[in-house]
Amino acid sequence: MKRYAPPFPSHCHGAANTNGKMMGCKLLLVLTLWTMSTEAFPKGAQRKKCHLSKYKSLPPWELETFKNVKDRFEDIMLLSDRKCNTKIFHRNWEVKELAVHDRAILVEAELHLVIDVLENFGDPSLSEQLVRPLEILRHIREDLKSCTRHQPDDHQRSRRLTSWLQKFHTAKKMETPGCLEASVILNLFRLLNNDLKCAAYMEFCT
């Protein structure tokens, strides 16, 4: 199969015997190829779109890194006198009851807190284990931002979501750092396997 090659401009044919003209034609060809490539792959084109389908099911080896963090934290909890009854993430309704656009807003708000807490985690013994989970969570948050930034102009948050966000932001300010850590880590799998998964399935999460 022949490869396609853009034709030389008509004034370049027969110019092989003139070095100056030939160099000019080669330069024109290079510029033509560059223009074609930049039009085919415009910078930032993918970032403007909402792509969450890859989060319908996270790879088992990535989930294992979160499990390791949770297991290690539970060991720490057993050795401490930390007593928490936090309900920051509590809801008496399911994510699937929200509109598709509201689901992304909800998960993004949860991720902001999760990442902030894990980045400032108090126990240094967990620092190394948190490196990969934080990389994953930051990447998810960036993808969610692409979705929440490009919502329809006429979209309005539901009263249910607005009310929950207000309670969520109030509750996290009232918690001690230790109980915030406990709430975040013990809710990681619910966030990834329930909330994020539902947001990824969009209208098919029912």
Report what the structure shows:
- This protein has 206 residues and is mainly α.
- The chain is built from 7 helices and no strands.
- It has helices at residues 19-40, 60-78, 100-119, 127-149, 159-174, 177-186, 188-201.
- The longest helix has 23 residues, at 127-149.
- It is globular and about 50 Å long.
Compute the average pLDDT. Answer: 80
Largest sheet: none
Number of helices, where a helix is a run of at least 4 consecutive DSSP H or I residues: 7
DSSP summary, beta strand count? 0
Report Rg. Answer: 26 Å
Features:
7 helices; globular; 206 residues; mainly alpha
Helices, strands, pairings?
Layout lengths: L18 H22 L19 H19 L21 H20 L7 H23 L9 H16 L2 H10 L1 H14 L5
Describe what is shown at a glance.
With 206 residues, the chain is an all-alpha fold.
